[in-house]
TrEMBL record, chains A, B:
GO terms (BP aspect): DNA recombination; DNA repair
Family as reported in the entry's similarity comment: Belongs to the RecR family.
All residue ranges annotated as the Toprim domain in the record: 81-176
PROSITE patterns: RECR, TOPRIM
Gene3D superfamilies xref list: 3.30.60.80, 3.40.1360.10, 6.10.250.240, RecR Domain 1
Zinc finger boundaries on the chain: C4-type: 58-73
Organism encoding this protein: Flavobacterium alvei
Keywords recorded for this protein, A-Z: DNA damage, DNA recombination, DNA repair, Metal-binding, Zinc, Zinc-finger
Name of the molecule in the record: Recombination protein RecR
């Protein structure tokens, strides 16, 4: 791609560093900004810079937060004895949206993946183990993705907490609500039969 | 979407102002920036701001340029008597990539579209008409998109320059190279027959 302006080229190059944004999309986005009032670009730049420079993580659960202790961890109405372990802050948002969980979270910041150079030390695992050791935790719910990396991470953490008095569980795997049986993959269908729930329970939402 | 951080929320909101970027994609992009070194965010913000604040447009063809007269307009090897009229600077880049055009460009900045509130006065039309009036132009090639708005814009400009001694042409419409005939739409196929080219000419690239 040949650019008639160095400024434009630099902007497109930086924009195309973002995941899933190729050079052509980057050019489209940058030209869009050019057609908008200058304020839009300065608001965007300012928002990104402030976010990157000033954002903090909750000292307890490692969720993104503007204060030391996030709104969930500092909420006394939530059950601090039940911890849901997730990879990412997006997972926290997804679970919060369901309105089904009244405990607190622990954000690992990823999963163990030797291929990507992510070992246990890069993740927020030790602080979780410390919480379990302190004896304040009754249940740990593992809500990682159902992949080899997710399972490895689950297992690694489980090994470290199994000797303590804490209930470990994983979120249920099964056929999605609204999905047809015939299109489900074998493993999921198999697990859904293995982990079947009593009929009366399946109607309840809580 | 519930955010645990105001800084994050603002960044996602600003990012999702961009065309084709929804809230979920914006969140993914912003969280990606959070995982990268701070420099990446500051480079991106800086590049966007500089571009928006400092970018200039060629005084002659209205292409984006860092100097008053763009590299194409100031290139003496190019034929200044042939002007290719395009909507957008992306079209300039696309035509330049073909290596088939040795004239200069005139970037309108859009096309006449009453629905979007774009009239002839919002476009760089008068400066094009002035160039024709000055008598320095031998040929005007219209290379706008083949839509109602594109045709309207073509026609509007043509009306204003038809009394001057200048050749007007439009780029050829036809079956794309590599395309199967049976999948072509009727209008395109019809035009490709109407505007057929002598057989010997069809082999030449220039």
């Amino acid at each position: 791609m040949e650019f008639s302006s160095k400024l434009l080229e630099t902007a497109v190059n930086e924009m195309s560093q973002l995941p899933g944004i190729g050079k052509r999309t980057a050019l489209r986005l940058v030209l869009h900004l050019l057609k908008q009032p200058k304020e839009q670009t300065s608001f965007l730049s300012q928002a990104l810079t402030s976010m990157r420079e000033e954002v903090r993580f909750c000292v307890s659960c490692h969720n993104i937060s503007d204060v030391d202790l996030c709104a969930i961890c500092s909420n006394e109405k939530r059950d601090h004895q039940i911890i849901c372990v997730v990879e990412d802050i997006r997972d926290v948002m997804a679970i919060e949206n369901t309105g089904q969980f009244r405990g607190i979270y622990h954000v690992l910041g990823g999963k163990i993946s030797p291929i990507d150079g992510v070992g246990p030390n890069q993740l927020n695992i030790s602080s979780l183990v410390e919480k379990v050791k302190s004896g304040e935790v009754v249940e740990i719910i593992f809500a990682l993705s159902s992949t080899i990396e997710g399972d490895t991470t689950n297992f690694y953490i489980y090994k470290q907490i199994q000797d303590y008095e804490v209930i470990s569980s994983t979120i249920a795997r099964g056929i999605s609500v609204g999905d047809e049986l015939e299109y489900a993959d074998e493993v999921t269908l198999g697990r859904s039969i293995l982990h079947r729930v009593p009929f009366e329970k399946s109607f309840k939402n809580n």
